[in-house]
Amino acid sequence: MEKREEFTASLKEAVKSQNKIATSTIRLMLAALKDRDITARGQGKSEGVDETEILSMLQSMIKQRRESIKMYTEAGRDELAKQEQDEIVVIESFLPQQLGEDQVAAEIETIMAEVNAEGIKDMGKVMGVLKSRFAGQMDMGKASGLVKQKLA
Prior knowledge:
The chain has 2 domains: 90 residues, Hypothetical Protein Yqey, Chain: A, domain1 (Orthogonal Bundle); 51 residues, Orthogonal Bundle (Arc Repressor Mutant, subunit A). The chain is mainly alpha-helical.
């Protein structure tokens, strides 16, 4: 099932079951997707964004919420932090199984060998392959740090 269809089906289910967090979070996801589709159509992609870009969007949404949780916790607003955490759980349910740290490191090593990465100047090549193969399966920010560390 395509992600767009999965979002719509999940939204219907969340509304039926009166799950307010899931309903509002999925609506936010659909709104973000619609914004990206409009931008993509403006760039000549008539079908909108592809699955890889949708997974990237979901990762970004999770990252934003983690940053908000940190700010809310520091400000003593635990109820808002909990709401953000609940939204993360909903968003993560649409992502593929996440790779563990050992798996991420192994995949980076494999890709570095494939593209003959020898120095920091090859970081873009390695990250490009990582993003195309593992979108939604790993935190690209952490992966980027690992790649930089291995290439330095």
